[in-house]
Specification:
The protein is mainly alpha-helical. It has 6 helices and no strands.
Length: about 110
Amino acid sequence: MFPCLTSLGANCLGEDADMFGNTLTEAIQWGPRTYDLPFKQQAVNELRTLLAYSDVDLDRVSWAVLGIDPTADVEEPPNWGNFPSLRAFWSAVLHAFENDPEVRAGKEIDPDM
């Protein structure tokens, strides 16, 4: 039901999230850069749908698609950071995707320009 979110959980927001930044917030910001525009637009749609769920359902889906617990206070890597709730985490992910330059422009942007 959430193929893009599952992909994020297997990539920049999953078990190897630290490869995409020194903090969880950096990994979230990095996420949109690794995907094409259709994926980003679909991710925005999936995130909006997910955030319309109740907290119970949001928790259930989150554990199914993520390889990490974004609410946990982890020791490694140091200063990784965490979110007070899964809703706050997914809201930050939605914000990162909605504010991606390509999503805002509604078209692919040539990185050399």
